[in-house]
């Protein structure tokens, strides 16, 4: 459990392992860094349930847990998330009180160092993509920096973050359309994921380099790839394509989580 910013929130990580002392490779997932994206936390929790209830009963799940450690942060922005329940359903950022501004909040997914303060982020505290005063100025961002660094050399994949909406599977880079050296392998793996995801219910996804679709300087995926060496570092934008947007109906939670998990399993089994 990690303490969040001065708002006294807590960021909770769930770890699933059949033997932590084995120092197995790690798959890391975090969800709901943008407060209004409720389907992401629901998807993370559903996947946790599938793994924990399936271990020992389903050979595929049992094998995946025996091979890897699984780490999840279902709600990466808890103070912002609480605000969407209590005050503003469409709030995006955290709830930091910015000095010398009446506007509240920083986009913690623009608060990482690779390309910090570049295109796709804003220096305006009133913007939804406000990047903060410096890289890692936000305790949410520094918490995730420290979580991944603690497992340095073991982290096989990061899905950071799960987002909604748009139905996309995205790889580094977010700050530039230049492609990483390992892009062919990144593409191969995410194509496997998207094919399995789409084959579940026919949900169409686009996939590829983040910046081609969404410029996102200072995001997590670029930091994990560049500074932590995680080749399989991805962002997923879950359902839908705009009909309901951030307010996806509850009856779409299980289908969204199911297809996402099918895609992730296929990818992980192929890397």
Automatic annotation (TrEMBL):
Domain Peptidase M14: 1-271
CDD domains: M14_CP_A-B_like
Catalytic residues as annotated in Swiss-Prot or TrEMBL: 237 (proton donor/acceptor)
Matches recorded under PROSITE patterns: PEPTIDASE_M14
Cofactor(s), names only, from the UniProt record: Zn(2+)
SUPFAM superfamilies reported for this sequence: Zn-dependent exopeptidases
Top-level taxon in the UniProt lineage: Eukaryota
Family: Belongs to the peptidase M14 family.
PANTHER family: FI01817P-RELATED (PTHR11705:SF91), PROTEASE FAMILY M14 CARBOXYPEPTIDASE A,B (PTHR11705)
Record's protein name: Peptidase M14 domain-containing protein
Organism: Daphnia magna
